[in-house]
Model the fold of this input.
Amino acid sequence: MMQFSGIDAVFYYSTTIFYEADVANPELATTSLGLVNVAITFAAVKYMDVAGRKKLLTMSWIGLMASYLLLTISFVWKPYYDFMDSVSVLAVTGVIIFFAFGPGCIVWFIIAEIFPLYARDTAMSA
Done:
């Protein structure tokens, strides 16, 4: 689930995306994305029990799809509209936030709930 979310590609290309979006310091912006990911993950862990794992996971996948769609649109329309640079930065940040609320943290808790105690270590390894 985490690999299908595309989070690795976003982090790998985030510096390039920020460079293309004319961000003053793309490396610092990428580092800031990592900090946002950590901060949102802590918030997501607290919010997970209140909202429910299934609902939170569903909403995060919808948010990821919308963020990726927005990122794609910003790339396609960049030559025509100047504000698409800001849209691409917003979309990348949205991907990180929605990932942290869904596949980034929930998957580790679901394994503990699905498998019995004697099989959890094998399931986590697999």
